[in-house]
């Protein structure tokens, strides 16, 4: 049974924290081998599931300490058919991995949430292709058919919503939103942005949000930005416009590197957690409707703790 599917609490004024860069943390900080960045593969074993649980613990602590809510995103960013095929998963095994990932989050919520500490369970989706490069683009109809399978599996679990991260182009976003609407589960679209504040496919953020809303009757619950440094997208926000009210979440990189540089780098650029916290504080002081705050590639619990500490005055005011 879902808890918040009919009324997502992050659509109010309260701030909800999320986690940071799951895959980069597991690979660079914990030394795990994640083929194709597929963290869902950890659901195969008891030790793997425990790894995900331990990963979430400091993020949950930071949210609870700061008086925030928390969004539990599943480790299913790569758990869609094409990526499952590359890892040798049958459809049945892939569906089980998606379900077990949500079950883990539900167990975490039962153990940790209170009336004063709401926790939203979110089924994470990823692009069919690369999260940095817009290549082999699908039509919206093809995207809807592709993502329908995973969304259908997640909709049949207690997940409150699905959130599509590192989406590089408008047709794929439209397809995801339409499939989620058909399955009766709220969707969130989070766009990857380049150093110029545009999607990898070339659209401006304003164009992308406006086009998806027009094609889906504003089906997404809200939109987010992820996998870009605040310096890359802050000028875009200054342009303003009605589309900006549809944007409610940030999962930024702490690194100022471009996606091409991140792809080629042998190291992990974690940037400056304190600086990132201050930049978030500035952003939500200017855009108080941004209520979902977390990190992306290269960020970890230090960054989210700094974000939580810096934004506490805004949370207290909310």
Give structural notes.
There is one protein chain. The chain is an alpha/beta fold and 318 residues long. It has a single domain (16-317), classed as Homocysteine-binding-like domain (TIM Barrel, Alpha-Beta Barrel), CATH 3.20.20. Helices cover 45% and strands 13% of the residues. The chain has twelve helices and eight strands. An eight-stranded parallel barrel has the order 1-2-3-4-5-6-7-8, surrounded by five helices. The longest helix is centred in the first third of the chain and has 22 residues, at 91-112. It is globular and about 45 Å long. The mean pLDDT is 95.
Mean pLDDT equals 95
Large-scale geometry: globular
Low-confidence stretches: none
At CATH level 2, the architecture is Alpha-Beta Barrel
Biggest sheet character: 8 strands, parallel, barrel
Number of strands: 8
Strand content bin = 5-15%
Q: Please, how many domains?
A: 1
CATH topology group: TIM Barrel
CATH H-tier superfamily:
Homocysteine-binding-like domain
- The CATH class is identified as Alpha Beta
Cα separation of the termini: 29 Å
The assigned structural class equals alpha/beta
Tally of helical runs: 12
Order of helices and strands: EHHEHHEHEHEHEHEHHEHH
Please bin the fraction of helical residues. Answer: 40-55%
Radius of gyration: 18 Å
Strands side by side in the biggest sheet? 1-2-3-4-5-6-7-8
């Amino acid at each position: 049974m879902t808890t918040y599917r009919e009324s997502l609490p992050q659509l109010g004024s309260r701030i909800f924290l999320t986690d940071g860069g799951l895959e980069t943390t597991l690979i660079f900080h914990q030394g795990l081998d994640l083929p194709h960045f597929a963290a869902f593969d950890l659901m195969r074993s008891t030790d793997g599931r425990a790894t995900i649980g331990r990963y979430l613990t400091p993020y949950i602590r930071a949210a609870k300490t700061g008086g925030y809510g928390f969004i539990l995103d599943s480790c299913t960013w790569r758990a869609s058919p094409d990526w499952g095929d590359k890892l040798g998963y049958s459809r049945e095994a892939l569906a089980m991995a998606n379900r077990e990932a949500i079950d883990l989050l539900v167990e975490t919520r039962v153990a940790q949430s209170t009336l004063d500490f709401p926790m939203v369970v979110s089924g994470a989706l990823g692009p069919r292709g690369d999260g940095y490069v817009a290549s082999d683009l699908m039509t919206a109809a093809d995207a809807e058919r592709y993502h329908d399978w995973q969304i259908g599996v997640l909709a049949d679990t207690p997940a409150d919503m699905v959130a599509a991260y590192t989406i590089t182009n408008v047709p794929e976003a439209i397809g995801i939103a339409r499939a989620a609407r058909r399955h009766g589960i709220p969707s969130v679209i989070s766009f990857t942005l380049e150093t110029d504040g545009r999607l990898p496919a070339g659209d401006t953020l304003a164009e992308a949000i406006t086009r998806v809303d027009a094609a889906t009757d504003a089906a997404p619950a809200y939109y987010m930005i992820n996998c870009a440094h605040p310096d890359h997208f802050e000028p875009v926000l200054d342009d303003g416009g009605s589309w900006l009210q549809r944007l409610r979440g940030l999962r930024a990189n702490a690194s100022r590197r471009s996606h091409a540089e991140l792809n080629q780098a042998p190291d992990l650029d974690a940037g400056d957690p304190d600086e990132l916290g201050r930049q978030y504080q500035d952003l939500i002081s200017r855009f108080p409707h941004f209520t979902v705050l977390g990190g992306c590639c290269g960020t970890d619990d230090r960054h989210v703790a700094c974000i939580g500490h810096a934004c506490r005055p805004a949370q207290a005011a909310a």
